[in-house]
Structures are given as C-alpha cells and as structure tokens.
Amino acid sequence: MATGRTHRPATRSRGIPEATVARLPLYLRALTALSERSVPTVSSEELAAAAGVNSAKLRKDFSYLGSYGTRGVGYDVEYLVYQISRELGLTQDWPVVIVGIGNLGAALANYGGFASRGFRIAALIDADPALTGKPVAGIPVQHADELERIIRDNGVSIGVISTPAGAAQPVCDRLVAAGVTSILNFAPTVLTVPDGVDVRKVDLSIELQILAFHEQRKAGEETVGEGALPRTAAGRDESADQGPDGDMPAVMQA
Amino acid sequence: MATGRTHRPATRSRGIPEATVARLPLYLRALTALSERSVPTVSSEELAAAAGVNSAKLRKDFSYLGSYGTRGVGYDVEYLVYQISRELGLTQDWPVVIVGIGNLGAALANYGGFASRGFRIAALIDADPALTGKPVAGIPVQHADELERIIRDNGVSIGVISTPAGAAQPVCDRLVAAGVTSILNFAPTVLTVPDGVDVRKVDLSIELQILAFHEQRKAGEETVGEGALPRTAAGRDESADQGPDGDMPAVMQA
DNA sequence: CCATCTTTGTGCACGCGTTCACAAAGACAT
DNA sequence: ATGTCTTTGTGAACGCGTGCACAAAGATGG
C-alpha cells in the first residue's frame, strides 16, 4: 500500500506477497516477546493469536519463506526469529536520516524502536539554522546544506521525511538524487518519485478521517436522512474556524 | 486495514468499499487545495494525478457516493469537497482524547491537522502526576484518573493512544469501557477490543521494516546466496546492542 | 438543431489475498 | 514397529479491488 508511483514488480522478484511482507514485522514482534520468555516452540494457532491474525493466514505466510515448522509440534521460536529477521533484512545495519526536526521529527529521533531493530540514526537534518548543532536525542542536528554529503558519506539508503507539507517534495527529490531509495513520508503530501524508489506514507490525519467515517456510520443510523442536500455548492459556511492554514499544516516544525 | 478483531461488516452497511473510504481523505486534500486556488471544476484525470491514483479508480470511487460529476466538464470542486466531507463525517465536530503525552503524544497535540478538519482535542491525559496541569500545545494535561469522567463529560468517541506498549491494552480497555468506539493506536502492540469498536494502528517500526525488506531486495541481488543457513538456532549473537528493552520500547513517554 | 468532442460512469475480466478444509508429516506412547 | 494424535503445509474456492475499454451524457460550436 501507498507505494509512491511504481507499478510495483517489487516483491514479485522472489515470490513473497506484499501483504505477507507487511505482516512479517508483526510476527517478529510476537516471536521476540516469546523468545524473551524463553518459550522454545510455538504453534501457528498460538502465534497467530498473539499477532492478531488468522492461523491459516500465518501458516501460508510462513510457507512463502520455506518449511520452517515441525508438524505435530510447531515452530522453533529462536530459529523463526532469525529467519524472519534475515528475510526482512534486519540482520544488517540500516543507517537512516530524519529530515525535518520539528515536534514529530524529534519524537521520531527519540523513538527507541529505531535502534532496537537494525536501524541506526545516521543524522538529523533541518533547514532551520537555529537548530543546527542543537542536540536532539543526543544527536546534533545538521543543516540541510549538508544533506547530500551526509547521505553519501554514510551510505544512507532510507530517509524519513517529517517536514511541513510544502518542503516534502523538494526534500524528497534531494534525497533521491543523493542516492536514497526508500522513503518514509510523514508529511501530508503525495510524493512523486522515480521508479525503483519505494515510498511509504504515514498520515495521521487520514487515519482519523477513516475512523470518523466509521464512527459516523455507527452513530449515524438515526441522524441519517436529513432531507435533501443543499445541492447548490453547499457547505463551507459553517465551522468558520477553517483557518488560513488551508489543508494539512503538518505536525512538525513550526 | 488493521481493524482490531471485528469481522467487519462495518462498511458493508451502505456500500462504500473500505478501500474507497481510505482514499476519500486523499481526494479531499487535493480538492481542498484546488478550492483554495479557486479552481471551479476539475476532471477525474487532473484530480487523480493530484491525489496520486488512477483516474478510473477515482471515478469508480466517486460512483459509490453518487453521480456528482458532469460529463464533458468534470466535477464541481466546492460541491465535491462538501460531499466528501459529509460522507466522512467531517461536517460535525469530533472531540478526541490523547492518552500518553510523551514525545509522540506532545507532537500529536501540536499537530495542526487535528483542529483543521473537524477534530478537536478534548483532553490530554497522562498517568504521570508530574505532567498533570502542565500545558502542552496550550492544553493542560490531566491525570489518568480523570479519564472516565472526561470521556463521558465530553461525549468522546475517538481516542488516540500514544502510551508505551505495556500501558496500551489497559488504557484501551478503559477507553472502551467509558464509551470510546474508535481508537487510533500508536503503541506497538496488538489491541484486543470488543466487536463494534474500530482500531487503526500506526506503527513506525513496521513501516521501516517493510522498507528494509524492499531495500534488501533492491541491493541484495548480489549478496544473495551466501551459502547455507546456520539452521541450528542461529542469530541473536551478532549485534549485541539489542538492549534490554526487548522489542518495541515505544516512542512516547519516558 | 445537428455534429463533434470531451469526460463521466460502469460492465467486465483479471489478479491478489483470504479462508476453508484436508492430506501429509512427524512426535509420542505403547 | 505400529497406531494415534497433533499440527503443518497447501490445493482450491471465493471475494474484493483494480484497471481496461466503451457506451452514454452532456457541453460546445456552427
């Protein structure tokens, strides 16, 4: 989902369906928890419950990786942790840059989950000179001018964009030009990237709107059918607090 | 995607496919931008480009809402903005509580996108007494003890969880018990909720892992086939920096 | 009023993902 | 060694989502 513009022959390469890939981290998390409790083996039923999925789906997912289970017993936890980690590419170190150190960027920098799973913050970058040198999460923020050099020097291939919406596409272009081929975008904009570059989007505003839709459905059955619609270029008068910020102001950086 | 445990007859009620619902906010954003530039009408082709989707898909999506276009001309921007807003339930005001005011919770509280689209932060809640009363984004943090009262007094039906992973399920249970029926979960845990409650999950760690997978695929074709696998309960020795935090430490609250 | 041109709305086919249900595989007891 | 019992791995059916391609609708110009 949300792969920028690519026609995505991406995963087809060696089989594993995209939907399965998206669930592997879920399984990995559940397995890691079991591993910490020193549980030696786990059945597809148990693991599926822990990961919140159907057991048949889990078995089919694992079947794409190979036959790692033992019939009548289940899966070896440690071994499976290793296999999934390897499949996801988590056995190697991924240097990551975060561009846009506002509220959200800082929160991301402080996120423990980064370091814990093969991801290492190579640099924090922001266009605001006032931030340059200031440490966030123990890492000094560097100026945007340094972006290309940082990418190249550290061999960064994954970039996180947490800038305001307006800055996202330019930043994206620079990241790609400098060699980044995977982007995690928190800015509320559609990014256009060349083929071969993966983009994943995290958009809080959209998630909330989807929830609102379902919420309305649940609560709505009563208020429904409020007569005909205005039909003549309606709305936009009520809730005058729309503000001058237009659409999505973005979490981050003021 | 990521609907807690429900068998989801959710959207079936009146037709609109889930995939379409997920795209409506995207269209709305693009339309709002056009509206600000006072563009009167837009074709499916143009709007689709702006939203980053296929034009046929966009037309089909809109067809679920009704026939709001004019052949030979396109769609009336203002009218469509209103229709989609109404369909998403954005013409009404949704009070929202954020539970867990750590790094991420604070970033979310400062997020402009909240207020701009029918969402209003009714309260910020945290279990840490040291935070109680301290203003974040201009709103004083309230103690978790007040949670049930706040939910009921404000008629809150949407809750955002940005606590550490361990606190998420208990918080979720309390929210649901108090009347919340939609939850946006930022904590890296699978939440279990009763039927009728919607859960959407935003998990940064998972997004990164999916990117890493594709990245490995792209770069990998060379390093592939590194002989046989250890097979005997491999890994876990290298990268000793795994830390004692186990899996997902969660962004938020220290 | 008619012809032409643009753009919508949708029938249809295809492919992916999910789920069921079961045979094969192996552990374990006797 | 043999039978029973558990659990995996997967063939097959189904349903949803996507994209093509085109007919219908309406605007626009003569």
Tags for this entry?
homodimer, 254 residues, alpha/beta, Arc Repressor Mutant, subunit A, 2 domains, seven-stranded mixed β-sheet, 40% helix, globular, disordered N terminus, DNA-binding
Report on this structure.
The structure is a homodimer of 254-residue chains. Chain A is an alpha/beta fold. Helix content of chain A is 40%, strand content 16%. Chain A contains 9 helices and 10 strands. In chain A, strands 6-7-5-4-8-9-10 form a 7-stranded mixed sheet, sandwiched between helices. In chain A, strands 1-3-2 form a 3-stranded antiparallel sheet. The two termini of chain A are 29 Å apart. The model of chain A is unreliable at 1-13 and 224-254 (pLDDT under 50). The first copy, chain A, binds a DNA duplex (30 and 30 nucleotides) through helix 1, helix 3 and strand 2.
